């Protein structure tokens, strides 16, 4: 039997690399989906790739309470409830030391990566209670358990959602609502291309290329490569499904061994 048969899943950040991979995998495993993002064209394309009989979409800014309530209600109206929230929407911000970091960029990263997750939990928990429980999966990062220079906003946000997850896990347990984070290392996505390009732009040595930065980052991962979105989605599927029925409050690394050896 498909592992998400009969379940309804909400996925934010659904048009990015990890979100889209999760949408396809969840649909293959029987879920009905409401996909959330800002880009309606990309949402339509993702729904079509998944199958319109299995997926609907809602255009929403996850930082806004009314739009968050609206996307949760859209899933209830279309599918009858919500069993899984994959709080995956996130942005990388910019790269610069803390004294030089733009305040507006810091605020936007925290709004999307932390406030957006908090709002999703706030409005989906009552709906899950009506279903007798559910699973909330939050996308954190290896940056959520470590740190590096020049990414203060992103690193702070990914630490913050682990604390939020643990609080929500404690609050949700009596209602059968499980909450966990998935923490990827560098993954082959648009976000990592953006970070690599920003990293090269901040270097004094103009001869260093994005490809060299990519190879250097890969070399710091024990398995010697970036992950792919499908590998992250498989962990998300485990946590969304009843296979993880005794798992809550956990931090699940998908990082090729990077956290084992530090950053």
Give the secondary structure arrangement, pairings included.
Blueprint lengths: L7 E5 L4 H12 L3 E6 L2 H11 L4 E5 L5 H15 L4 E4 L15 H29 L2 E6 L12 H21 L4 E8 L5 H13 L7 H10 L9 H12 L10 E4 L9
Parallel strand pairs: 1-2, 1-4, 2-3, 4-5, 5-6, 6-7
Task: Describe the structure in your own words.
- The protein is α/β, with parallel strands linked by helices and 263 residues long.
- The protein contains 8 helices and 7 strands.
- The chain has a 7-stranded parallel beta sheet, with helices on both faces.
- Helix 2 (40-50) links the parallel strand 2 (32-37) and strand 3.
- Helix 1 (17-28) packs across helix 8, helix 3 (65-79) packs parallel to helix 4 and helix 4 packs parallel to helix 5.
- The radius of gyration is 18 Å and the shape is globular.
- The relative contact order is 0.15.
